[in-house]
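Folds abound. Consider this:
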Amino acid sequence: GSGTDLGTSEFVVYNGSGTSVTVTGLTAGTQYHFVAYAFNGGNATTENYNVTAAPTANGTTYQAEPTAAATSMTFTSVGSTTYTVNWTNAVTGGGSSRIVLVREASAVNDDPVDGTTYTANAAYASGDQIGTGNYVVYNGSGTSVTVTGLDQNETYHFEVFEYNGTTGIENYLTSPTLTGSENTYITVNVTAILQGAYNSGSGEMTTALNSGALLPLAQPYNVAPFSYAGAESVSSIPNANIVDWVVVELRESSTGAANATSVTTNGAQAAFLLKDGSIVGTDGSSALTFEITQSGTYYVVVKHRNHLSVMSASAITSAGGGANFTYDFTTANAQAYGTSAQTAVNGGGTIFGLYSGIADYTTTTGVIDSGDRNAAWNDRNGTGTYTEVDVNLDGVIDASDRSYIWNNRDQADQTP
């Protein structure tokens, strides 16, 4: 409004021979129209303007940049491949809208560019990418987004950028912003065999305790030496193929299996062992999901009440793309940490299982010894009970149990 007014607020903002002009003093969020008139002549009386072929254009100024970031980032409905990111919009100074960026493994490291409209997609790595690895998962005026397509056992970093303006004229606030991170959980498929319960003829474990209605409805590991305090229980045994309860632990160690000790445990749960060796949740069918508190390198431990515990010799792995982690102890003796920490359970020596024989919890823990032999002898001929002395899990305490204990004498738990 400082140049000559040609009428109805049409102001001259440039007069010269150049190709551009920077116009100041405009109002935020307002559209302005421009016409460029070429002319010949050099003074106030000789200019000859071309008014019939004058180029025109228009542009809208950005709205004012927000002054306040969103607050209070939280994460809910956390799972192995998805969770919901929540935030609180600023009451004063926040933008009319916002975009959310996510980056895997490290913090978001690039900013949105003013005047650029970004397409969001809540499926990870499907929305627009800003810089390298920074994906837009949300663009709108709300307060949450449920992000899907995440990898398991990974930490994702988020940053919320406020902005004002509509398509093509966004004005982003790049400092301050709201940031936060959360890891995904681990769902793992574990396979293990109990020597005492295995039948080499059928290639499966016995379900005698189940069919005999001897399995407890609550996990039995809340006693020493396990002292597992989980509250897992069922109203009825959910699957006819269930052999017994087990406890499964995840231990985190970035420096090798030897350092994956009990103090590194970052998740444990009681679960059901099926006759084919699959370990499932209390619904009788689902793989186990661990609500880990940090992503990392994990080893899996399987504990049973009358067999020697085992830990994976190597870290559990996933094929990526959200696939479950897996570990199969049965394919080789070396699948268990230690030296011959398992035993062959079939004639061909191709299937391996946990050593049977822990019949007494009051003597040396983790070693099959005379205390176990004495317990089996003292309780001989017992039937119809759920007891650690029944090391072959058939519901009867007899010579077969004593045989396992004798043959496996001096074998010891090798979990670190």
About this structure: The chain is about 5% helix and 30% strand. The chain has a mean pLDDT of 95. The first strand starts at residue 31 and ends at 35.
